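Weekly structure sync, notes
Attendees: PL, DS, HV (note-taker this week)

Item 1: Polypeptide N-acetylgalactosaminyltransferase
DS walked through the input record. Source organism listed as Larinioides sclopetarius. Sequence as pasted into the shared doc:
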Amino acid sequence: MMKLRLYTCKIVLATSLVWFICGVILMMYYTDCIGDNSAACQSFRNQKVNSISLRAHKLFRLTEPSTTSADENFRSWSPVVVNSNPSHWPGEMGRAVIIPPEEEELRKEKFKLNQFNLLASDRIALNRTLPDVRAEGCKNKKYAPKLPSTSIVIVFHNEAWSTLLRTIHSVIRMSPKELIEEIILVDDASEKDYLGHPLEEYVSKLSVPIKVLRTGKRSGLIRARLIGAAQARGQVITFLDAHCECTVGWLEPLLDRIAEDRSRVVCPIIDVISDASFEYVPASDMTWGGFNWKMNFRWYRVPQREVDRRHGDRTLPVRTPTMAGGLFSIDKDYFEKIGKYDEGMDIWGGENLELSFRIWMCAGTLEIVTCSHVGHVFRKSTPYTFPGGTSKIVNHNNARLAEVWLDEWKDFFYAINPVAKKVAAGNVTERKELRKKLHCKSFRWYLENIYPESQMPLDYYHLGEIRNEFTNKCLDTYNRKSGENVAVSHCHGMGGNQVFAYTKRKQIMSDDNCLDASSYRGPVKLVRCHGMGGNQMWEYDEQVKKQFSM
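Item 1 (cont.): predicted structure, written out as tokens:
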């Protein structure tokens, strides 16, 4: 009976102590720093609460594991993001901004300036709040307690004020301050007055160090990024475009992957910010980067083998064959070691594939980190002009890529895109020497091991036109999509839509589509290549020079 009374007394005393401590906490919270919401005061409050909690923990000897928890080697980095904007403000939580009909003409006029709805962008707060679009498994992830710092490099040319500043504010608000070494803005010869002194004055008042560098003359994205990278002091360089919005927890998973292995180059999931309404639309974590026959970057569905490698855990990074190139993080020393960007490339285009091939073929790894989300304004066309035209610039860059990295597929690329062969690639001796120095693997190795899903045929019998000898007409895809019929037209000898590959698997391929004969007398269609023979298996009779569907 005495033991029961003693036990009851202990419970009463313990309960009283708990209420006493709670009362002390409330008193300290409401009496200290009354009316003061400064950061220093808030920090002071937090210290007191933590101190009292620690005393309570020791007093009551809360259950502790007998061994050190693995979680003690990690920490939650994500900053607490407070939504201070009224929910009815335009664009809050990533909602679309609808322009009323009476302002439609003004919207159209402003759209021409940047090829996105500038009127909508200007009505959205520079610090607008976005939803947390990460997978649930990402939200509680912890990362190494010591991560490398990063320099954020943003190149701009005549960028809109609201999109550029929203990019900067999102970086600052959504990133742990100790991880941001600096933000480097590289002005590639902008002509807008507001991007001069007003920009410098504005960013000088922000809470992280920001440099504004000027190229002086139009240099293009590639060379402007190199200027920014040369000035970077962070251990990691993070490249962003000038019309992005970072979301909560975007940076830590990128830096954590590089901290584990400096030869990793990592990209966030690139979400879509609508060019029409600035609605924030999360992208799938089941897409990765690839390319087509013309060396154009394309998004494709992640194949089953990569799903299996990750054991179905969609919070793990995806090993992607290529990257879009606008948004990625790379260890600064590693960036320099593998040759940075190809300085012989002009303006923009092809540099993302060239760097992707180089990373994989020269013993690096390229990943999409699925726990990192950054929004990007995807435009249907560019508002900028290029010397000699866009196609000339892209063909020049792709020719350099082909000469250095494609090996025997160089001829394949030129057959598909003969215009690129006529464009001067310039001197590529240094880049070829770099490849030798880094002991890089072959492009065949890349296709077989990194991107076996590629539509680049590993082996083929013939590559060229399919010509009717009697009518002198050629089979032509007319750039049609999967499921549509092919047709015939005048043979133009310019490659492109009239080039087909007859592979050793007896497919007739046109990029990622194959000729498909669904019935004996029915039309021949373009259908996504499935590699299973059947309607896509063709025999060629050398004697009569005819192609037959099997």
